[in-house]
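Long-time lurker. I teach an intro course on protein structure, and each term I like to show students one example going from raw sequence to a predicted 3D structure in token notation. This year I'd like something fresh instead of my usual example. Would anyone be willing to generate the tokens for the chain below so I can use it in lecture? Attribution to the forum is fine with me.
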Amino acid sequence: LAKGLGGGLPIAAVTGRAEIMDAPIEGGIGGTYGGNPVACASALAVLSIFEQTQNPIIENARRLGSALEAKHNEWKNRFDLIGDVRGLGAMRGMELVKSRNTREPHPDAAKALVRYAYQNGVILLSAGTYGNVIRFLMPLVMSEEQLREGLAVIERGLENVTQ
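-- Reply from a regular --
Happy to contribute to a lecture. Here you go:
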């Protein structure tokens, strides 16, 4: 929860089922960014926004997540180098493979796509055990137009990588 919770300020947050969270000794769960008063005030302001009945950030996050999922599914049907797309909402992963049959990871394609995107104004991160997964986690306040712009760059990058 930490990244979204702090509103840009450093703060940490851990959640879980009570039986798990209550198991460690007192002070057993902690973080570098726990307890800063300014960051805590920011987190409270963020939470108050999220508690609003009609929350434009949550509504926008749903729209962004749906648009991203639709584009990922379109790409998966179009590009054989996409082995899998997974995730929820606006936080997703796109796995690049050499072959869908063998599912052999393709970290070189991921590196090439990250490089292409960066050279064309979009910052992507590769992740995963083999470095072949492209992480998607956009700001929840971005516009759908900004998302479309970024996805167009990534699509051209996928076309470039598959040639």
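Some talking points for your students: The helical segments are 2-5, 18-21, 37-50, 56-78, 107-119, 144-162. The mean pLDDT is 90.
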